[in-house]
Automatic annotation (TrEMBL):
Domain Rrp7 RRM-like N-terminal: 11-67
Record's GO cellular component terms: CURI complex; UTP-C complex
Protein name per its UniProtKB record: Ribosomal RNA-processing protein 7 homolog A
Biological-process GO terms, alphabetical: ribosomal small subunit assembly; rRNA processing
CDD domains with a match to the protein in the record: RRP7_Rrp7A
Stretches of the chain forming a coiled coil according to its record: 154-184
UniProt key word Zinc: no
Higher taxonomy: Eukaryota, Metazoa, Ecdysozoa, Arthropoda, Hexapoda
Amino acid sequence: MKANKRNHDFKALELKLTEESVSPHIIYFKEHSVREQSPEKPSGRTLFVVNLPPYADEKGLTNAFHEAGTVHSVRFCNKPNETEEKPTKTFLPETLHPRFRIAYIVFKKVAQLDKALKLTKLKPMYETSNEVKLGMDKWIQEHNNSILLPKNLKENIEEFMKSYDADAKSAEEKEKQLEQEDDEGWVTVTKQGKVQSFARSDKVENKIMAKEEKNKKRKELKNFYTFQIRESKMKHIVALRQKFEEDKRKIAQIKQSRRFKPF
């Protein structure tokens, strides 16, 4: 039995919004083939599509690849093989960013993927442009959808705070469990937990008090100011001159006693 060989190079086709569109976008697609298998992107039935315009949605791509067969699911991503992240807990709705994306189109059958790879033309995503909002109309709709009613906003805030309090309580209970002694008397110390104090003896307390008193005494700064440095240099020169005169007297005394032997 011969294996089914597919071309793994990208194929380029025009993607039109409607049949009357005069400025279509060029999209590129090929079979999604990676080593790590995923149930959301099954091997042999997934089509990898890039350079999708911002207005492309699941319904539009399903219509565009309708001739290939039944589309099981469409998964949009910003980067290839991007893992889905958990949404951040917030009481504000997520905003849509107008940017080009990629998509993984999963067909119901393997033969339908083969047919999609052999397509020479895609169907328009919509029959009329009224089915999708673009440009200013789309931005106005997104802005209106992002504004919450005071009642809904209050419900979202209360739900967020309730979830936050539950997480904080769970973390506190977990920390208390870790601080409890085990059978051997050991205590797990965490970076958020309090360090347990030890009983101080009189000797330890005396050492600590002596160290604190010593630290309280201010040390005099030497040669810190300019005039101190100048005075220090002058004193040093005077001391050198005095030593020089003293050495001269000693040499004179040795000469007089005839103990001086230079050679």
